[in-house]
Amino acid sequence: MRELDQLLERYLDRCWLEAGFVERGVFLRLLESEDDKLWRWFLGYDTPPDVELAHLVERIRALPH
């Protein structure tokens, strides 16, 4: 989905270089999730069961367009 790609690219462009080792690992785990789950998380319909993933999803959602 192009919209998901844009959200994730925004994170990579703005946050990846400053992200620590742990956050980068969480992001890589996020990428392993199925697109339909990612879509529901980023639209706010569901929350990831993993707290670290949930925090990162919220951080990405809060990035300015």
From the structure above, extract its key features.
4 helices; single chain; DNA polymerase, domain 1; mainly alpha; 65 residues; globular
Task: Explain the overall architecture.
The protein has 65 residues and is mainly alpha-helical. The chain has a single domain, classed as Orthogonal Bundle (DNA polymerase, domain 1). It is built from four helices and no strands. The protein has helices at residues 2-14, 21-31, 35-43, 51-62. The longest helix has 13 residues, at 2-14. 9% of the residues are buried. The model has no long low-confidence stretch (mean pLDDT 96). Belongs to the SdhE FAD assembly factor family.
Order of helices and strands: HHHH
**The CATH homologous superfamily:** Flavinator of succinate dehydrogenase
Count the beta strands.
0
Q: What's the mean pLDDT score?
A: 96
Strand content: under 5%
Which class do the helix and strand fractions yield? mainly alpha
- When the domains are counted, the total is 1
Described by strand count, sense and barrel closure, the largest sheet is: none
Q: Give the C-level CATH assignment.
A: Mainly Alpha
Terminus-to-terminus distance? 17 Å
Q: Cα-atom Rg, whole angstroms?
A: 11 Å
- Helical residue percent band: 55-70%
Number of helices: 4
* CATH fold naming: DNA polymerase, domain 1
The outline comes out as globular
Poorly predicted runs are none
CATH architecture: Orthogonal Bundle
Quick recap of the structure?
The protein has about 60 residues and is mainly α.
Chart the SSEs and their pairings.
Blueprint lengths: L1 H13 L6 H11 L3 H9 L7 H12 L3
Helix pairs in contact: 2-4
